[in-house]
Structures
1.
Amino acid sequence: MTPEQIDLVTASVTVLRPRLPEVADAFYRRLFAEHPEVRPLFTGDQDRLRLKFADELDAIVQTIPDFAGFLDRTGALGTRHAEYQVRAEHYAHVRTALLAALAEAVGPQGWTPETAAAWRLAYDMTAEAMMLGAAHSHPRPTPRR
Ligand code: HEM
């Protein structure tokens, strides 16, 4: 991501901050409507989850400029997600639902092509780093000969 793209993502989080739990709620509603098969993975309290998701999204965005901090945070998050039975293909489902919820919350004026592209990159970087964290925590068993 370029410094300008990091600024765009940070700026939208700053604007959305008071409404981030609502954005999280809209995101989960979209995800469950579009992919009902992931619903059973969510066994905890949904109100607590949307607050945690909002805080985590905010914190991740803040760490992007400190790349080592970003990798530590997202790697650990990805490790926990492997324990929640989250698989690589789920990240694409979340991508669509989250970006749509963010676009709706920011509104057509703010969701410029540049902002949308910056968020796509931020999400992809986060998802890749989470999947790396998940892969490293679950080494493949050595195949038997
Ligand atoms: C940018 C990507 C994501 C972020 C920031 C994120 C954030 C979070 C956070 C903060 C939690 C609370 C627990 C914890 O901190 O470990 C959580 C739980 C969870 N997430 Fe994610 N997540 C992401 C992607 C995904 C994906 C792709 C899935 C797949 C469907 C998923 C499914 C879950 C599930 C099943 C839980 C446990 C919920 C429960 O206990 O009811 N997440 N997520």
Note: Residues 83 and 134 are 9 Å apart (CA to CA).
2.
Amino acid sequence: MQKPLSWFKHYPAVIILALLVFVGLFATHALAAYQQITIKANVVNVRQGPGLSYDVMSQANKGETMNVISQKNNWYQVRLSGDKIGWVASWLVDNTEVSATSNRVAKVTNSFANVRQSSSADSQLLGKLNQGDEITVLYQQNGWSQIKYNSAVGWVQSDLIEVSDQAPATVQKTTTAESESTDTDTSSSAIKSVTTQLDNTKLRTGPDVSYQYTQSYPANTKLTYINKSGTWYQVKDADGNTGYVASWVVTPSEKNEVVKTSATSLSEATIVLDAGHGGTDVGALSTKSKYEKDYTLATVDAIAKKLKAAGANVVLTRSNDSFVDLEPRPALANKLKADAFISVHFDSSNEANEASGTTTYYYSSSKDMSLAKAINNQTKTLPLNNRGIEYGNYQVLRDNQRPAVLLELGYINSDKDFSYISSANYQAKVADAVYTGLTDYFK
Ligand SMILES: [Zn+2]
């Protein structure tokens, strides 16, 4: 019985430290729980899942803000207008962390709780929760909690649930101010009208449910868009009545058509670029004993610049002259669930000036071939002879679970090839070829 007490006597510092760490973890969690992102690319796709393989459900414009629900594989799960949940690539958005209550686990404390389509007791019933059910609260306002419900969102009355952490009951005013200031006119100017999703959608005198409503509309009512105020739209109906509707109960129309053409999938792609060799592994040598490792790095830098400018998430297996073993290179692509892995090398023949040209290597025809074809089609435009696509049993390809190719971009011990390999002009041409190849591949 004396044991715990005596243990505390001997190790009070350890216990206090453990408590501090415990409290610290919770504080961090509370602060990071609610995040708002602002779209920084001209237009981004919102997809049904965290990756390029998922269908596009809508698009968002530069300056638009969204609330983050969760994060996976460098993608953000976000809450959209129209009560939908979708995913955007994290590198195409700016992340503004704000401290407020949201995205918390809560429990139903009442014997049951109705889940409704909007924050009003007369809105459509979506379903019912039972006492003890655990839910994720995304947002709270005016006595209502927006929750994750069946891969969309719904609303329950806040007094029927208990949120696990103590926190302010409403989102701080600064959040609204922020979304207003980052939400420039250009982002919303493409919206011509909005269409109600639900029966009994209220037109209110101000941008908040605390304002009185003057009209209510059935589902599929088209309203003319005037302006945006935080997460509310100022609109005008067919009879000329103006007021505000909540953005999440309406669908902005004629918005997708306006922006659709400028979105490219390359901007959503995660590309791992692998500069061959490095550090003590110098690679092959030119006739004047220049190292392959230096030109693979310079070429990868040129490719990276080009792809980053297109909005892609570019990750390098090495970014300086350091030794990186073979094993971690494909492992990085696997870990990131990269959409493509491209390894850059230069060939070498037994005798100097014996061979010339570029080759694209693949390992798995089912996984790698379409990427190999798309890129090799473009490396054909390079000034060196294209030797085609070949099977290559390289570890960086063999251990790769992601679409992967290894490019041999010329023979380093050919004086003719080396004059290209070592020139910034050729490196830029390679970057253009890889960029165009990837753009075709992701089409
Ligand atoms: Zn090599």
Note: The longest helix spans residues 12-32.
3.
Amino acid sequence: MDVSANRFDRLWADCKDDYTAAVTEVGSSGWYVLGRQVADFEAALAAWCGRETAVGCGNGMDALEIALRAAGIGPGDRVLTTPLSAFATGLAILRAGAEPVYCDTDEHGLLDPAAAAAALAADPGIRAMIPVHLYGHLADMPRLTALAAAQGIALIEDAAQAIGARRDGRGVGADGHAVAFSFYPTKNLGAIGDGGALLPATADMDRLARSIRNYGQTERYVHAVIGLNSRLDELHAATLRHAFLPRLDTWLARRRAIAAAYLAGIDTPHVTLLPGPDPEGAGWHLFPVLVAPTRRDAFLDHLKRNGIQGGLHYPVLIPDQTAMTDRGAPIVHGDLTRARRFATGEVSLPIHPYLTDAERDHVVATVKAWGG
Ligand SMILES: Cc1ncc(COP(=O)(O)O)c(C=O)c1O
């Protein structure tokens, strides 16, 4: 059995008619960059998230950078984030000209509100905070929102892995913060290529973000700020809107059903399940488990021998990456004990929406059969 982390062949078989119809529509329209398709997708995405506006851009990392810059964050500012994320989270902060600073995660692998409070109390240079909704689990937004409000700092949610996720009845975007999404192909809403979007927190931020994504242009040939070329293509906007967004609820339901089956079925002392703070509401972009760090390679081998592709998210913490340490010692508040437990012992099991019931059962049986 081939139980890969993703099965894009099945995605294509399911979506190709809607996808090619959207491509034909764009091709025949004669308008390929920042046109009606982007505007329509932005409106559909905003509505899906219960928000007024969305701003399409080139990828999730740019969405974070643009959100930071549109929130007024730049050189001299520090941005508090989690060390356990895709490198893009830290890189976006650097690209905005700011300095990433890190504190530990909670037991779910999400930015820990207590550690964040301690960091904010110790470091008045922190001007923004980026919690990451890792694995599709929402961070503790009520507590982080209260912290950010008390300090008067910006709060930007890295929701690259969490479109459609809920926690205690509240969805991504419900609190009105700036939110960044990625449409990288593996994501819960993925394009066939790169794409991203942000939900701006205010009308001013919306205006500035639209300008920054397009060379800092405010009107034709008028450049008010130093911007980027980070535009969502008409092709991606059209295919996301017509082929993929209409399937997102079904895909999320399938991810949740697989997660529920794993949580109910995987019962072994050698593997620690991570249901997260709200297993029914989570977006389940990934299904992480923890094993003993000394046995992780053996577990991955066992999965591989049974045709199952395990993943690691993430084996090296962002502040430990050479690109970060080469700049000087990264700023870390407190210790990173819980984040390091994930870096050394986490393994992700396959959980894409095209996984069959037989493959799901094979994953459960294989994990249960592992002797540790
Ligand atoms: C948590 C997180 N943040 C940011 C990104 C960056 O998104 P992109 O690859 O679209 O730039 C990713 C995806 O790779 C991610 O998983």
Note: Residues 59-61, 85-86, 88-89, 132, 158, 160-161, 182, 184, 194, 196 surround pyridoxal-5'-phosphate (CB under 6 Å).
4.
Amino acid sequence: MQVIVLATQKGGSGKSTIARSIAAELTRRGRVALLDIDPQGSLTKWWQRRETEDLQLITGLTRADQISKAVETLRGQGFDWLIIDTPGARDEATRIALRSADLVLVPVHPSQDDLDAVGPTVAEIRDAGANFIFVLSRTTRARIVDETGRLLAAHGRVAPAIVGARVAHGEAATRGLTAAEAGNAAAADEVRELVNYVLEVMG
Ligand SMILES: Nc1ncnc2c1ncn2[C@@H]1O[C@H](COP(=O)(O)OP(=O)(O)OP(=O)(O)O)[C@@H](O)[C@H]1O
Ligand SMILES: [Mg+2]
């Protein structure tokens, strides 16, 4: 089982949206489990609205020891991938999740506020000894994407696949779906490309 963790100390950068999108895409390729360690529970609420029972969810765990135990239990259950959604804050639970990660995805919305959060986020991930990639998230203009990508490249690897800003993400989420599942072809292309890249990096 490969563990993919969504993490960044900047709130609202797209962690939960990307967690859902890649989870749904990965169910087309194997068995996927979700672990929501964000007390806000965005991923959990989405999962509860979802009608298809294709994703196993573990939620409501906040203590570090509970989280590492849950990951170990899932390892014995034949899942191909586990996706962990974390809160946008530095805490012990997130540190445990980072330590279990095969790959951490760090969504970065191209804005100064998100860029300012990159240093502390990267330090926390490095402390945990995890591999990570930046994923440009909620992007609009190509020029700003290029510029942000260049700045980020000084700190780590930047996924060539980006997640564009699309209203379809929020709309689909109200029905427990992803934008791709709701029929948004551009979002489907983006997530397929992102998942291909993520799998390639994890090897
Ligand atoms: N690619 C996108 N296009 C349009 N809207 C998006 C996109 N990604 C996220 N959003 C919207 O931005 C908001 C924040 O996204 P999301 O909840 O995924 O971020 P987060 O990093 O999980 O936030 P938090 O730190 O609060 O957990 C949500 O309203 C979501 O619908
Ligand atoms: Mg979230």
Note: The mean pLDDT is 96.
